[in-house]
Every structure is written in C-alpha cells, then in structure tokens.
Design goal:
29% strand, Rossmann fold, 2 domains, 13 strands, homotetramer, Alpha-Beta Plaits
C-alpha cells in the first residue's frame, strides 16, 4: 500500500510540527499516526515518528528531495522508509533454538513484517528447521583461531543477502569491534538477565547463587562494550526458592522470546530512535 | 506556568494537523507533546490532544476566538484547558475508606493536581480524616424515602463548590438519572470487578462462588446503565483456592485504589476523550 | 525413576497427615514435596498432594491395597499415580493452530511430560505439522447432520489410543453431553475471554464493542454448561483504544497459549483437584 | 485463638514428617496448613512450616520440651511461635515517608499483625503523623561524629520496647556492624533498585542514565555487606524514555511500598527461613 514513515531528530524549537505537517498536506499525504518526544522544550532534542499515507503515484524520491529543504532549516537527521519495502534480516544463533523459533513463528504467522533471508549458526542443530521453511542456513563453526576468517565469511554472506538487520537470537559469540562498527544500531541482541544485573556469562547461575526473587531478559543494540548497548526492552518474571538453575533457564526462555521478538518488531516498524546510549521507543 | 491543552474530535481528513500546528506556530506557542488517534484515515473520526506552551501575556480568550475559525472548517468539537486552573473535585464515599485514602494520599504528595473541595458521605466514619486535612465534609445519610431530597442537597453543595468532577470512591448508592445527566462524563466510579464480569452487587462474593483465578477492578464514567458506562481503566491480580471472600476483598482493595487513582489523574490531565460508549485515553 | 504422587480428598479431622506420613515412612518412602489445603479445620474438606520417592522394587499394587485401610478410616477419595507412567493426550483443534503449536513446542522441548498420541481436527490445515512430528492426525469434518456419527468415530479413536486427557486447543465445536460425561474432569478447554465475561461466541468482538481495557483467556474443565466448568487458570493483558478486533485476537492468542499450556501441565502433574465447580491447584 | 507455628530446618531424611505429624496428633493438635521444601531428598537440607491449632489449655512450654526429643533425633533447628503473641516492631525512617505510611496504613486496617512500638527518625517531619496514631516517635539526628553515640541510644530504645524486628523504611543511614550483628536476620531493608543492579546510592539516577526499561525494588535482611543480604522479595514496573528521574522515583515509590510491606508481613507470619545468603519463603 502507499504507506511510509518519517523519522526525525533535531534540536527542539517552535514550528517543527507545523512545517512538517504542512509539507505533507501539500503533498496530499494523510498523517495516520504521529508520535513525538522532546527532552526539554527549551534547548533539548526533538524526536518524531510520522506514519503517513501518500497519494498513489507519488514520486518518493522527489518528495525526499523537497523535504531536504525543511530538514536543512531545522538541522534534522531524518529518513523516510516505505512500509512495503521489507527489511532483510539475518538471524545468528548458537545451540539453544527458542529465540530463533519464536522469530520464525511470528514470521510465519505474518506478525513480523520482514524477509528472514538467512540464518547463520556455529552449530548444525537448527538446519532442518530453518531449511524446512525455505530459508538459507549456514553452519559456520568458530574457534579462537578461525574467528577472523569466519567473520569475514559472515560479512560476505550479509552483503550477498543485502542484510539490513542482524538479530543475535542467543548467539554465544562476541562479535569483533570492526564487525560491530559496520552494523551500528543494526544488531539486536538478547541478554538473559535484567541488565545491568548479571552482565556477561552465566547470568542464570549467578541469579540462582544470589537468591533473587525475579529474573529477567534484556534486548539491546550491540556496541563494543559487552551488554552495555542501548536497551530496547526488558521483561521480568517472579521466581522462588523452589526453582533451581534449570527452572530459571526455562522461565527465562519465555521472557527472552517475548522481549527479543518485541524489540525486533519495533525496529522493523521504525519505532526506535537511538540517542546517546539510550533508546526512544514510540510504541 | 504558561501551559495549556487543546483537545479535539472531528471527522478525519487531510490537513488537520497542518492547520492546528500552523495556528499554534503563528501564536508563537510551542507544542510540548502531541497524541492523535484516527479510527480510519478514510471517513473515520480523528482525535487529538496537544500540550503546548504559550507566550507569557497571551490573551487566551482571543486565542480561542481565533481558533474557532479552524474548528468550524473541520467541524471540530474542541476545548482548551489551562494547566494552572485546577479542577474542583467532590469525592463521594460510603463506609470503606481505602479509595478515599488513596486519593487524599496522592493529593497530599502533589501527584493529583486538583482541588479536593469537598467529601460527601452517607457515613460519619471518614469525617476526622477529611477535616484533619482541611477539607469540608458533609454527612448525608440516605434512605429510599429521603433519596430525592438528599440528592437535591448534594447538588446544592456541588454548585456551591463549583465542582468539575465527582469521584465515587466506593460510594454504594445508585445516583438517579437526572443527577447523572447533569454531570455527563464528569462522574468517575470504581467498580470492584473486572467488567463486564460481575456487574452489580457483591462481585467478590460472586467471584468466590465462580472460582475465578483472577479478580479485578474497573474505573468508568457513570451512565444510567448500571456499570455499563465508558471504561477508563482496569486492573487484575491472580488469586487462588486458598483465598476466601475476605482475602479477595483485601486483594481487590489494592487494585481498586490503583485503578481509580489512575482514572482520576487521566481525567484531570485531559487525557480522556469519550466516544460513544468507549474512551480514548492518551497516556 | 521411583516417583509417585498421592492425591487425597476427605473430611478434615485430626490425624490425617500423621496417618499418611507414617504409612509412607513404614514403606521406606521419602516425601519429596507436600501440599495441603483445608477449607475449614472444623468440619470442612481436606485436600492433599504428596510427591514421594519409593524404594526400588516396591510393589505398588500391594502398597495401594495396604493404603486402602487408611483411606477407609478417613473416608478418602484418593489415587496414586506413577510419574514414569505418562498420560496419553488427544488434542482437538479447529483452524487456528496457535494453541496446538504451543503444546507441541512444549512437548518437543521436554516440558510437557505426556504422550501426545493423536490430533483430531475438523480442518486439514494442521496435518503436515502434526504428522511431521510423528503424531497421528485425523481429519473429521463436522456438520449438524454428521455430528453424532463423528463423535462416535472420535470416541473410537480415543479408545484405540487409550486417551487419558482431551485438550480442546481452540476446537470450535460444542461436544455433546454424553461425550462430556464419559470424560468428566478430563477435557480441558481454552476459552478466549476472562470468564465469566463474554461467555459464548465471538468474545474478542464483544470485548472490542464494550471498550474493555484488558482482555483475557480462561482454561477450564468442560462440563455441559457452556463455559461454566471449573476454572483452572486465567490470564490477562492490557489493551487500548488503538487496538482493533484483529489486534485483540493477536494479543489474546499469546494469553491463550500460556494459559492453556499451564493448565495442561498442572493436570499432567496431578496438581488439580476438582471440588464442586471449582479447582484446587497445588502449584 | 489457639494457633501456633512450628518452623524447622534439618538435614533431609525419611521419617521427619511422620515424626512431627504424629507428635502433633498425640497432642490433639490439628494441622491447618503445612509447607515444606527439600533441596535434595538425598543429603540436602529440609525446611518446614506448620500452622496448627492446639487444644485450649495446652501447656506450650511442656509441648516444646517434649518436642525437643524429636528435634534432637533429626538434628533440627526449630522454633514455635504463638499467633496471638504479636511481635514488636521498630520502624526507622529518614525524610521520605511513603514506606512508613504504607506500613502504618496496613497496620491500621488490621493487615499487619504486630505492635508498631516505636518510630525512630533522623528527621522531624514524620512526628505528627506517628504520634497522631499513638505511636512513640524519637528524633535522633545523625552525623559522622555522633553516629556511635546515636546508635547506643537507638539500642537502648530498642531494648526498652523489647523490639523483635527493625524495619528500615527508607532509612538512609548505614548501620554499624556491631548493631547489625545484634539483630541478625531481624532487620528488613527496602533498597530502591532491582538488586544486584544499582547497589548503593542514587539507584534511580543511575537507572535513568543507563536507560533501563524497567525499574524495581528489593526487600532484604540487612547484613554487613551493603545491599548484599538475603533477598526476601522484589518487584518491577515498566518505564519509558518519557520518564525523567523524578518520574522514576514516583513509580519506584509504589513498588517500594508494596515490596517492603510484603516482606514485613511474611516475616511476621514466620514464613521466611534464612539459609546461607538466601531465603526460603513459604507463601
């Protein structure tokens, strides 16, 4: 259909909404929904997401060129994305398939509007599942020695499939800084704890040792500080003394599934704006 | 401060946001936050709430007159409310004080921006609490025979205090239709069930009898159909076979407190638009 | 392993726990966990679930015979179930597969300890999924005219597979009274509303019409009063004016999946005792 | 009434439940509710809480003496507490009164079964509230120089009032090790974060900086490792980019109130057993 989204970040000042909405009105576009957030009306940053319907036959490239004038006037960072142009996703996964399964499920039922182009794993065990759905699967085992070489292969694959978003669906390898830099704010990870509690390895084991009464999961964009990237979504569930480490993992898996799928959907719908080390999420 | 809210309802069509935001821009007003909802971009209803900062010295009456032209063009129902003009609340309560207490607590801690002008009860037991906070208290017992007469007294009091909003904080009397008509969409009730389950009397007893595994509470605007008015907010909590009716009441009280206080705050902040028998709530 | 569960219901009186635990102690069995509930210590009903480990080589039939003496003394209804004897499940499903999928998923990951013996559907669309997992699938379409005949076929299948539990995983047909009687307290249904709200057809449509702010789902044992059987578990999620009927269905599906799977697991672990039209659930 | 609770910890082995329940049966006592937990049936620790009704006129001291024999046989740590003997509470509070208010509210409405004997604060602002309810209030300001002296005064007061439990209801002073040792497992604190995230000062400020999407609160027994004591209960609520530090504090306060009151009630009902640095909570 003729739906597009306009995402904007600029210094706040009077007249922004008027300028944008008048521009769209002149294009005979209709604003379907609109979200905005200002840190501070005096001198803060202004963020906006507009969902609009444009006239059939609208030349989008021309529309963008014309909008650039407004963007310049207000010093905007901005982009327009067309709803019918689906983003290409690559899913990275290790042995535990629950997050991968959730994404595939949502995708099959039409709730995850994207192309799942390829799944890359350092284990073989998900191949059948993935290929059974007609998605390409690459088994790329990793060792310390081969890491650089494997990442090079991964990059080639990502390029071949023209990937827009990488989802680390319980991928238990740390990506190298150069890899991360290439995909800034385009790699979403799920960490199996309520960050910043239990950064790093074995969070469920450590949660059990500490005797917490709730566990959680956190989806975030990957940066080169481990588990320190901009948080997108978090979830928690109560636990008790009766739960051992395996129980925590089981309960945690359902939180992970939910929290990762939510983050991916928000990204695909252009609802997330990264600002510093935080996110603005227009739900 | 110089903050105001513009609340709008009109048939959806292109150009509304442009017209409004350009109007405010010409008034040198700055939009601080904005929410909109459209049922259907083609021929549905459009709803909007704008929170804006106007220039010191702005003549608000003049601003309203000028806005009327836009309002006419788009067939708007609309209003402007000034943030510094606090609304006057009357709280009606019967014997159980927990909802009254919650509202007074929120009010004392500065979270409920209103004047609690008067408390009216058919019981004496809350007098000390209310008067201790410097709020006027009226004890108006009700019987079938005196109902009409008492409602007349209540109306006099409401007029004397220039009341904008009536909150039924567990007031166990049914208001007569003429009373309700006078305060259309300005009486908020808390019903102690998850509506439409357990409409009417003794919902906790009936929830216990049915063996439900969750109980709830519902805040809604009062209409002349008992417990059928537009729902504002609902909450639930899990219960088990171990809970008897008294336990359900106890658990329910904390839901009631939360759900009623939330509804009142949203009303005070002009976040609720009634549409048919439903509400649009701009959180 | 050598694990068993003892489930008891009897009039409350002193000495029950002593008698049972001494019996097990004399059998050299070790109580692993124990739950009890008494409606009223004076003259109410007493309910108990004991999870115990028996000695390797214990003759369970003999143990049961010996326990009968205690059972008689306290007028107990009781049963012993062995953990390693998995129950046989038949899943009935219509067109929407999300609840079926959830159960299969839990079963594959080892969290649902049962044999899923057979899936029966009045639609063809889940065949591939089911048979792909090595589970038998029967397509039995139903019309008013063929209902009696189809139910006879269903009963034959259930007998052939020696089914202990029927799960109605969004099966949109009403079972006849004679069918229900045969499987008393052994048919679990998921209803797509927060009962007793929206009993019957099209609950999401009616929830939308009413403008509720939360929706829910309810798992219950099937009786011959539609949606009136003993409730096992309920869940809710918040919704808003922005959600249309399709959105409610989507949000509701994830509640249904969770609430049904929970009920089935509790049943399989003998955690549910039906009492009148209610359930005691020993979590 | 004639209600008591028996709390037990011992190495797990067969025969414990039999011995205890037979003992109570011989005393003509009736078990009203029972909870048990075993870490591991082979060689782990066993924990039990029994709620029982004893015969009017029972000599409790004699009952305890006779139970000692069973306790010796199974190497039990144990205690009996009588429900009608209310525990004496001292509440410590600094400037923010919301947790104090919650406890007083629950106490007034009969939900917190204890004597609130005294409130001690390093600020004056809660005096009127506390004394208005007939509870003694001590204003004991603290500086680095006077800390030792003030703690000595506090200890005298606690002794004078025969205090069983100290509740730190947002008391912003760190107690000295000697003080803590005297009240081991009898000081409950509320920390305004989801531990182990944001240990120490200014957790809401740090949560804001980190951009978390949920905040929490934790009630725990105080040990001499700051915020590292056994966790009793935790709660969380979602937050968004729209919330500033003050909003987080406001949302957090309602979590703190709930989580602290819950922990205090569980302690008063002898539902908590501390084991290592963890708690077993028999809800």
């Amino acid at each position: 259909e003729n739906r597009a989204r306009l995402i904007i970040k600029c210094p706040d000042q009077p007249g922004i909404v008027s300028a944008i909405s008048t521009f769209l009105w002149n294009q005979q576009a209709n604003i379907v929904s609109s979200n905005q957030y200002t840190q501070n009306p005096k001198g803060g940053e202004f963020f906006m997401r507009l969902d609009f319907e444009y006239q059939p036959g609208t030349n989008i490239e021309k529309l963008k060129q014309e909008f650039q004038e407004i963007a310049d006037r207000f010093q905007m960072e901005w982009r327009v994305s067309l709803v019918h142009e689906l983003k290409n996703i690559a899913i990275f996964v290790s042995k535990e398939p629950h997050c991968l399964l959730e994404l595939l499920w949502e995708w099959q039922s039409g709730d995850l509007m994207a192309n799942i182009s390829v799944v890359i794993s350092n284990h073989e065990n998900s191949r059948q599942l993935v290929e059974g759905l007609g998605i390409d699967f690459y088994h790329l085992p990793i060792t310390k020695e081969t890491k650089q070489e494997v990442e090079a292969k991964q990059k080639d694959i990502l390029e071949d499939y023209d990937i827009d978003l990488i989802v680390l669906a319980r991928y238990m390898q740390i990506l190298s800084p150069t890899f991360v830099d290439v995909f800034k704010n385009r790699i979403i990870n799920i960490h199996h704890s309520f960050l910043p509690a239990f950064i790093g390895a074995k969070p469920y084991e450590r949660a059990f040792e500490r005797g917490v009464k709730m566990i959680g999961a956190t989806s975030h964009y990957v940066t080169n500080d481990l588990d320190e990237g901009p948080i997108i979504e978090q979830g928690t569930e109560p636990v008790s003394h009766e739960h051992n480490v395996d129980d925590l993992k089981k309960i945690g898996q359902s939180i992970e599934r939910r929290v990762l799928a939510q983050a991916v959907k928000w990204h695909l719908e252009d609802r997330i704006i990264v600002y510093g080390n935080k996110t603005i999420v227009f739900e």
